[in-house]
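Ops channel
N.P.: pipeline sanity check, posting one input/output pair.
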């Protein structure tokens, strides 16, 4: 503990002095540095923080990694992975200004601070990925220079959100347009089929009979062929042949009973292939 907070006057940029100043600024409580003013960062647990972004929205950043503090030195080897943002890797507390190449920038306040194995503070008002912007962060000086581009970074991500919403809006409009067009095409095909069928029925049975068939009507005297055109093929036919005539019972509109047997809702009686009557079976 004392090694972390020792003031090293010989090196004003030493990590221990930086950590001490940060501890004095934010307060050190039971191994965890907490910011006094929690309007930016709220400590939730040892692995999760709720972060208020520059635009006042909140996101959850989940951090995992193994923190090693050998007893003979104060080297802190850490690899942090934020599922929302990417990865930060730090090399050593002794080489505070020498960081591994990182893909993130903590705007406004500073880097992650570590105390012992499970205590750390995320202190910033926005954490953004710089890879897409082509901003290299290889040292503390790079970080300080990137802070000056804060507005550019935040505006970039705000614009990304706008672009995503606009793209979603355009996709919805395109899907709606496609559905309308598909409906028109389907109706057009159906109308073409109906017109062709009507012309065929008029040619075969005459205008009056064709009109009744298209309305799915049946009548006495209609032929079996007309019946099939009007109601479709029967599900079952019970036919009896006599010397002078042939009788048939055609069954339509089948359904399954609870006993899994097939029954029909309608029966049409024919004699010599002409309709002579019909009956509802329900």
């Amino acid at each position: 503990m004392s090694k972390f907070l020792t003031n090293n006057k010989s090196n004003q940029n030493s990590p221990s002095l930086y950590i001490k100043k940060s501890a004095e600024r934010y307060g050190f409580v039971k191994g965890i540095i907490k910011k006094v003013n929690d309007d930016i960062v709220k400590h939730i647990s040892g692995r999760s923080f709720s972060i208020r972004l520059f635009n006042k929205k909140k996101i959850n950043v989940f951090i995992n990694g193994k923190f090693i503090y050998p007893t003979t030195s104060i080297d802190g080897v850490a690899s942090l992975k934020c599922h929302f943002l990417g990865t930060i890797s730090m090399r050593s507390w002794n080489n505070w200004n020498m960081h591994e190449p990182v893909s993130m920038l903590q705007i406004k306040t500073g880097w992650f601070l570590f105390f012992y194995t499970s205590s750390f503070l995320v202190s910033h008002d926005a954490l953004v990925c710089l890879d897409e912007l082509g901003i290299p962060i290889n040292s503390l000086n790079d970080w300080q220079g990137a802070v000056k581009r804060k507005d550019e970074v935040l505006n970039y991500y705000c614009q990304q959100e706008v672009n995503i919403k606009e793209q979603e809006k355009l996709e919805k409009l395109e899907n709606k347009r496609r559905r309308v067009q598909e409906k028109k095409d389907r109706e057009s095909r159906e109308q073409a089929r109906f017109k062709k069928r009507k012309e065929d029925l008029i040619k075969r049975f005459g205008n009056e009979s064709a009109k009744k068939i298209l309305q799915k009507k049946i009548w006495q005297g209609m032929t079996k062929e007309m019946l099939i055109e009007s109601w479709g093929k029967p599900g079952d036919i019970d036919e009896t042949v006599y010397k002078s005539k042939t009788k048939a019972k055609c069954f339509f509109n089948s359904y399954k009973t609870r006993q899994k047997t097939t029954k029909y809702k309608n029966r049409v009686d024919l004699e010599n292939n002409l309709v002579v009557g019909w009956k509802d079976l329900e």
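N.P.: looks fine end to end. The longest helix spans residues 150-205.
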